[in-house]
Amino acid sequence: MQNINKSNTRVVALEAICSVILEKKSLSAFVYPDPDDALAKSLVFGTIRFYHQLNDIVTDLLDHSLKKEDLDIHCLMLLGAYQILHSNVASHASVFETVNVAIDLDKDWAKGLINAILRQIDRNKEKLLAQTHYSHPTWMVKKIKQNYPNDFEQIFSQNNIQAPMTIRVHPKYPIADYRQSLDQAGITSKPLNVAPQALVLDKPVSVYDLPDFETGSCYVQDASPQLSASLLDPQNTDLILDACSAPGGKSTHLSELAPESNIIALDSDEQRLERVKQNVQRFNINNIEIIQGNAQQQDWWNGKHFDKILLDAPCSATGVIRRHPDIKLLRKPKDITALVELQAQILDNLWQMLKPGGTLLYATCSILKAENEFQIADFLYSHDDASEIKIDLDWGIKTVIGRQQLPDAEFDGFYYALITKNNKKNVENRNS
Fold it and tell me: Is 0.85 surpassed by the pTM of this model?
């Protein structure tokens, strides 16, 4: 697809879709020729979001599979099917515009096939939409149903809609005043009791439309991860580690709550650390030290023990699928096993760096129990100097250990567990 027409929105959308489906690349890696092309992005996200449903429909209608070199035509039909079934684009326009993309691809032979398939879909639209289809890979459907037999319908439904845009307002801006500033800019929002700095916008907007964004008025961050800083309860006298810190949302929040504390923002990814640096500069923060290093290792550590550690662990990201629908195509069952092992290794390593009496907050944007409550249960079992601190929040659901939020109208799927390190004397007394 090297010589395609980059001025055609649907051609650009198709290129992004093919990069995920055929090349197994992340959506975040795709560079749009026009970053402001909202239609292209909506077509891409929608097609990827409903990929499993659309693929089943199109595949059933095809007499035979297309050749490898023509799989872009298969992806093109998925794009057309999405427009007919799930978008506000008129059906006739969806068919017409999709067929014309075949010309841009120099595959005029496919026009008749595309037209025939899409018109069948249009004729059977009501019937197709009435059929239950979760549009998730089979292994993920099975796993989520096992983990949440009473809530899986909500999870699948939320995963297939656009996520809300939520901001964290800097404490120097009274939340009521900033909300008024948003109103004056034509941006309506609502506060959340459980996250006092959060405002959920009624409609997503460009960050540059947010009043004083460039000078540090707010940070785009879902309400669930906004709870991290307050749960860790940072004090100005604390030495705090934010492990796996990029892009810096939690580090900057910790700084807002404890501006005289010393915070280490650690991440292994040099490119992602640039985002941390940018956010630190935008907020004009001077108590965050940025270090590139691997949380599994100690070669970056100076040996000084931390009072507080925040570990937003690498995970399956199954709680934020609606923000990253390509997860449904790229994530594999074996990835979960590898992630659970990695999380355990990081936990064991960082635990050695925590002071007796210190606190570690474990967090993931996953909804899978193996990465969350089961992971922490195993950790507590194997570390007799570790104890759970109960999280008393009107948020999520109480699990065996910690609290789990499932995706809903206001919150992403997220998990928290709070652990304290007992001093040696307490451990001895407990074991005697």
Answer: yes
